[in-house]
Design a protein that fits this description.
The protein is α+β, with helices and mostly antiparallel strands. The chain has one domain: Jelly Rolls, CATH 2.60.120. The chain is about 15% helix and about 30% strand. Strand 6 and strand 7 form a beta hairpin.
Length: about 210
């Protein structure tokens, strides 16, 4: 797939075996669904992802990170949606930033959608992810449709089609942040650990700051 046309692109073996193992060790003590705080020590382990992001968005820097660990006894599914919220270093008062929430002690808000449209998401695979390991599903081209109301999502997914993002450990999938995506539960025993990184090249309005890594 092509990032500009489809909203997603696959980078095989972006992380070496040793680099992927270092990330697995780092996350061994984390919750199965964790938001990473600035100063966690993650920044020194993600140089390959930074390189991928810089090729796709000049000046891009990591602005927040999440870790997911899906197993047989923590085997959730995710319905079709667009990502709309961003993680921030603190709460502020800026036009267009709404729906403030606190998740795992971190401030989040819904920004003007044009900020989302200029963001990039990278998913670093720490395990092989085949058809039975709940690969992320994307609707190619949906990233070009703007902010999509929830009732319109099913018809747009049907129109765009669905693509599973299969991967080997160490692979990276890059996505345009607004792409419609979903995930089923795993259909076979196993483990699916993902580090999801958000990148942006822009500064936020005065008084607001990206959470960072």
């Amino acid at each position: 797939m092509d990032l500009a046309r489809d909203g997603a692109a696959h980078f095989s073996a972006a992380f070496t075996v040793a680099e992927a193992e270092a990330l697995r060790r780092f996350f061994a003590s984390h919750d199965r669904s964790a938001r990473l705080r600035r100063g966690s020590g993650l920044a020194r382990l993600i140089a390959p992802a930074d390189g991928v992001a810089a090729r796709l968005i000049p000046g891009a820097r990591p602005v927040f990170a999440r870790f997911f660990d899906k197993t047989g006894d923590a085997n959730w599914s995710l319905s079709w949606h667009q990502d709309r919220t961003i993680a921030l270093a603190g709460r502020g008062d800026a036009p267009g930033f709404t729906a403030w929430t606190v998740k795992q002690g971190i401030d989040h808000a819904v920004p003007p959608f044009e900020i989302i449209e200029r963001m990039l998401a990278l998913r670093v695979h720490l395990d092989d992810t085949g058809e039975d390991q709940a690969p992320l599903l994307v609707a190619p081209g949906s990233h070009r449709l703007g902010a999509i109301p929830e009732p319109a999502i099913p018809a747009l997914v049907e129109r765009c089609g669905t693509r599973p993002c299969l991967a080997a450990a160490g692979d990276v999938w890059a996505y345009a942040a607004p792409i419609l995506h979903a995930s089923a539960a795993m259909r076979a025993p196993g483990r699916r650990r993902i580090l999801q990184l958000a990148y942006s090249a822009e500064d936020l309005p005065r008084g607001l700051e990206w959470l960072g890594i």
